[in-house]
Amino acid sequence: MTDSAFVVVRPGALTTVQDLGRVGHAHLGVPRSGALDQPAHRLANRLVGNAEHAATLETTLTGCAVRLRRPATVAVTGAPCPVTVDGRPAPWGAAVRVPAGALLEAGAATHGVRSYVAFDGGVAAEAVLGSRATDVLSGLGPAPLADGAVLRLGPPGGPAPGVDGVPHRGVAPELVLPVLLGPRDDWFTAAGLRTLATGDFRVSAASNRIGLRTEGPSLERAKDGELASEGMGLGALQVPPDGRPVLFLADHPTTGGYPVVGVVPEPHLAAAAQAVPGTPVRFTPLGRVSWGPSARREPREAAARRRG
Prior knowledge:
Residues 27-303 form the Carboxyltransferase domain. Keywords: ATP-binding, Hydrolase, Nucleotide-binding. This is Allophanate hydrolase. By secondary structure, the chain is an alpha+beta fold. The chain has helices at residues 38-48, 190-198, 269-273, 293-307; strands at 5-10, 16-18, 56-58, 64-68, 72-78, 83-85, 88-90, 96-98, 103-106, 115-119, 150-152, 175-181, 201-203, 211-215, 230-231, 236-238, 246-248, 255-256, 260-263, 280-288. Strand 13 and strand 14 (211-215) form a beta hairpin. The protein is elongated, with a radius of gyration of 21 Å.
């Protein structure tokens, strides 16, 4: 056992090790994974003086508690929650110096779903395919935290920057998600696409790191049957047989046979990661994105029009 570590005292509902994920392995069937709320993950690392790719803990709803074996600078961001050190209140969204032997607790989220706990030096779990992220679909990366587990910390870096306050976008009462239609929007009727744009959807309690599931009306199909499996990207809005859209998040499968009606741009996925069950969801189609070889020609054609 090493002194540069912490012991899990309370793992919470689901606490995992996350970094920026495994980029570039989709052709092997490996999704990116990584922190669902990447801005919150990056902020936590900045507050303690880490590089943004250092591994943090991502909690789900109920937080977690750990006992440190070395002094550490710690910051908690993402979903606001009570933070305590040996039972005494500590600030959320700020760097806190925690002595060796102290119990650090990030409590249940008061708003949102996922909090991020960063330690100076980062969580030094074993890297798999260049990332320390836990992928709950494939099982790659370290196991979710469990009672009594011991996780190592990396060597502390430079001093944490001093800040007076940190940005926090808050949690909106409604999740508004822009959607670029395609590539399979033609598998749905005009009425089905109107339902997507106007339907009364809500976040389902069955949502997880793989995807945000919705409750509400079904999208009417124009075509029966299913597709041969095809590639699935981050932010894909897939529609299973029950007709209710599922937004693919970081641990999504890399292929699937249900039609993708559209894609939600990545900058909007952090808000989806913090939407609690029951949150109203509004999809706002922005038009249809170009797919295939024609999409690759468009920039050159547009440049030629500008020159001509």
